[in-house]
UniProtKB/TrEMBL annotation:
Coiled coil: none annotated. This is alanine--glyoxylate transaminase. Keywords: Aminotransferase, Pyridoxal phosphate, Transferase. It comes from Actinomadura fulvescens. It is an enzyme of class 2 (transferase). The keyword Nucleotide-binding does not apply. Residues 431-443 have a biased composition (Basic and acidic residues). Its cofactor is pyridoxal 5'-phosphate.
């Protein structure tokens, strides 16, 4: 095939820890709306949006026009030492929309860099390198972000600039003994755990707790209702700052609100944004209480962060999200998908769970013979979805989940189209797996044994 040589060249250039999806890697050549086109001319409905980055989809005229206008000025980089009105406008917009009183903003290139900055600000403000994070969390691939990540697949090393203690959070709610608890009982167990960790595993004062409102890489795991609200008095008593990592959940992905934290009746001290902020253009940042952001002494800035092209793209993206009420769309179309999946596949012999919030959904797959969470089953469903014209991602502690992160502009008709493709893929793989382990078993309707607890 025409793209075989490009695939070989790619594999020769990049290390294996930068993986590609699919048995035959996908070569993307174009996009429009919520669809991508590959080098062989196949069109796919995109339910992954570049790991939640292309939140408006592709070929968005408003973003193109704004970037083209900036290009015509002849300026694609303005040093942070100079004042740029577009940068000021975006910072004012994000500070106002953050929900944090007396907020200031710092721009970065990526969400990982923003996580590092937020942690550094909290450490300087509190004069402590002690940090609390949630088990199974993912916060990025830079040095500090890896330190607070609670998933060993993404840590990569034992060295870290922070002393991190992990507490119970989102993913635990769906596995092991905690799966049998209701939200109130789970929250009580987690609150006891937090108090014990602070008393036993930390030294002196703790700088901050960082959390994801929905643990995305862990497999679309929303935090239990009331958990953060129960944590807050304990954190306040210890003067521990609260950092909301909204790199993946921000700008309406969780539905109804711009930010995931707004589902939990708390207000963070610092909020981290990235990914979809620029609708594909690279920009991230930290917004938070001025008192905390002003803790940094000396000079700390990046020459290329907040570049004019990314800034104008981000400003237009935020206006687009708000003017079209995309958080409400994420809630509406996300509910269509979540309810449809629970109705159509939750009883499947290979489906252990369906969960999520807004347009951030995961289908957890299991081996029908043992009930063990099964990455190979998830990969098979992903491959089959591709054959059905749908692109989905992988997630979970062992990549045992199919992850759905469509653009926030997804229509109800496209939601139904994607739902049909997923249901067809699950039933096809269920047929293959059940027949391979138990030839006389019925093809559908047998729920998978309850999965064993994840590590």
């Amino acid at each position: 095939m025409a793209d075989d040589d490009l695939i070989r060249r790619h594999q020769a250039c990049f290390p294996p820890w930068i993986p590609t999806f699919y048995e035959r890697p996908l070569v993307i050549t174009g996009g429009d709306g919520r669809r991508l086109t590959d080098a062989e001319g196949h069109s796919y409905l995109d339910f992954y949006s570049g790991v939640a980055t292309s939140i408006l989809g592709y070929r968005v005229p408003e973003v193109w026009d704004a970037v083209a206008k900036q290009l015509r000025t002849g300026v694609v980089h303005i040093s942070p030492y100079y004042i740029d009105e577009t940068r000021v406008v975006l910072a004012e917009k994000i500070a106002e929309l953050s929900g944090i009183p007396d907020a200031k903003v710092v721009f970065t290139l990526t969400g990982s860099e923003a996580v590092d900055l937020a942690l550094s600000l909290a450490a300087l403000h509190r004069r402590s390198n002690q940090v609390l994070a949630l088990r199974h969390a993912f916060h990025g691939t830079s040095y500090g972000a890896m330190a607070v990540t609670g998933d060993r697949r993404w840590v990569g090393m034992g060295l870290a600039p922070f002393h991190v203690s992990h507490v119970r959070g989102g993913y635990d709610r769906y596995h092991g003994v905690y799966r049998e608890l209701d939200d109130a009982a789970y929250t009580e167990a987690c609150t006891r755990d937090l108090t014990e960790v602070i008393g036993v595993s930390t030294a002196d004062r703790v700088a901050a707790m960082i959390f994801e409102p929905v643990q995305g890489v862990a497999g679309g795991a929303p935090l239990a209702a009331g958990l953060l609200r129960a944590y807050q008095p304990i954190l306040r008593q210890e003067e521990i700052l609260l950092i909301s990592d909204e790199v993946q959940t921000g700008w309406g992905r969780t539905g109804r609100h711009l930010w995931g934290y707004q589902h939990h009746d708390v207000v963070p001290d610092l909020l981290v944004f990235g990914k979809g902020t620029g609708a594909g253009f690279p920009i991230g940042g930290v917004v938070g209480r001025a008192e905390v952001l002003e803790s940094m002494s000396g000079i700390r800035m990046s020459a290329t962060s907040g570049d004019p092209l990314s800034v104008v793209a981000a400003s237009v993206t935020i206006d687009y999200v708000r003017s079209r009420d995309l958080p409400a769309n994420a809630d509406r179309v996300g509910s269509l998908l979540l309810e449809g999946l629970r109705r159509e596949v939750l009883g499947s012999a290979i489906v252990a769970d369906v969960r999520g919030q807004g347009l951030m959904i995961a289908i957890e797959l299991a081996d029908p013979a043992t009930g063990d969470l099964a990455s190979e089953v998830a990969v098979r469903v992903q491959e089959t979805c591709r054959r059905n014209g749908l692109l989905v991602g992988l997630g979970g502690t062992e990549e045992q989940c199919v992850s759905l992160l469509p653009p926030l502009t997804l229509t109800e008709a496209e939601g139904r189209e994607g739902l049909a493709a997923i249901v067809s893929a699950v039933r096809s793989v269920e047929h293959e797996r059940v027949r391979s382990v138990e030839p006389d078993r019925p093809e559908t309707g047998g729920a998978a044994p309850r999965p064993k607890a994840a590590p």
